[in-house]
Amino acid sequence: MRTHYFLLIGFIFVTTISFGQSEEETEIRRLEKHWTELLDRGDTTSLLRIWSENYVVNNPNGKIVTPKDIVALMKSGHKFPAVERIIERITFNRNIAIVMGKELQQPASMVADRDQWIPRRFTNVWIKSENGWQLAARQSSRQIVE
């Protein structure tokens, strides 16, 4: 019986190590969800804490924008459509995390039917500093569905 107990504990330990996410990956996944929620709520104060000082976005329209541009747009009353993000891969390189995947963006007409949402590909770059993980760059482009 004791042998079975130790085997079970060993199996759980190995499974957790093999298939579990690292603490950093878990944190990046949490931040990915959190900053999207802040954008949905229009919480520019909290977004400015998550975005690095030199945060830059290459948006789906091919325009490069900064936090100053985004905050001004939000303060003018613009509401960003909802986005459902599917992370496909997170790669770490020292203090940099690169997140890649696909997302569905609600069209400007704000239809709820997800079949009508716009498919896109994205890359988000996070940098770990003394302030923790901050979003440094983002690129998003419309996905061509064949």
TrEMBL record:
SUPFAM superfamilies: NTF2-like. InterPro entries: DUF4440 (IPR027843), NTF2-like_dom_sf (IPR032710). This is Nuclear transport factor 2 family protein. It comes from Sinomicrobium pectinilyticum. It comes from the Bacteria. Residues 28-135 form the DUF4440 domain. Pfam families: DUF4440.
